[in-house]
Sequence to fold (396 residues):
Amino acid sequence: MAGVLVAVFFLARNLLRTRLEVREVQVGHQVLVKTVSTNGRVEPEKNYEFYSPINTTVNAVYVQAGDAVPPGKLLMELDDTEARSREAAAESTLKNAQANLQAVTHNGTQEQRQAAAADVARNRLERDMAEQNLNALSKLAATGAASPSEVSAARHRLAIAQSALHAAEQNLNNRYSPADVARAQAALADAEANLEAAQEVIAKTVIRAPIKGTVYTVNALSMQYVEAGKLLLEMADLGRERVRAYFDEPDIGRLQVGQSALIKWDAMPGEEWHGHISRTPTTIVSYGTRNVGEVLVEFDKPNSGLLPDTNVTVTVTTASERNALSVPREALYYVDGKPCVYRVVNNALVRTPVVTSIINLTQASIVSGLSDGEWVAVGTTDGEPLQEGVPIRVVR
Fold:
């Protein structure tokens, strides 16, 4: 009798116990995607920038921003007076260097070679005369008509004449050393480089369109003074643009070439553009207070209509399932580091381990552990934690 009373007591207690109010959702299939978003900037695939090569004045500007131009179109002219002066000085230096190398490699100028030949002839004559004088004195000395000191003096004069002749011949045939030739060659190379540089400056004072494209910035006016290095004009083929997107370092590992990208511009909230990743980051760079990797996104269709340097939002799809069995993310729990859900079965909770794949901000894809049409709890109405076996009341 006592055992029956205890059983009745606990049964009554269980029936009278307050039931946990939970919200539930039915498991079903849907398209599930995982994305990552960031900011980016539109840029031409190939941009043409023109800078002032020297401090000068703008003579004329022939285009305005927004003009479509054919290849070869004259865009701007700068005053090249100073550049022409530099070219003339470089040409003069080059001619002197050429003449110097010619002289070094041919043992001097024609005048120097003629003078050296004359020196050789004169010294050869003096040597011959000294030799004849020594021979004559030697014969006289054999008969006692000349003293030994006279013969010694004649021999000394012959030695001096032979030495002078040797020096003159060296001067005629080997005036310059290999080091002299190398210096002359280096001076010529420098002169040629200076002339080429001067001519390049002159060429840059006349700015022409290198391609068929659109001039999208003009930063100078006619008769305006500009400093060397000032950006004067930019143009590009605006039918071939891309987006340089800046993804935070933790997101880079999820990015791959070919992933689809959605581009939006705040200035046109109803418009969107589609593209794909064409290049992933090769390094991490500082971008303001962020460490980011630069990703290039190509438009799927040309002529996007976006202006260069436009700031846009880029959303890349890193994973997707067209028919994923999914539950809301708040229905996914972790016990001992393993994912699970609480199925609603006969007004009670049953903790069920699951295997997941894609998890985005709102949904989780279930690979195994659940079936289509089952119901799972997504939380309680009062913030109490879910517990297996606790009686519940579903609140819809």
The helical segments are 2-16, 81-105, 110-143, 148-173, 178-204. The chain has four domains: 18-32+322-394, 35-45+237-319, 47-79+205-236, 86-199.
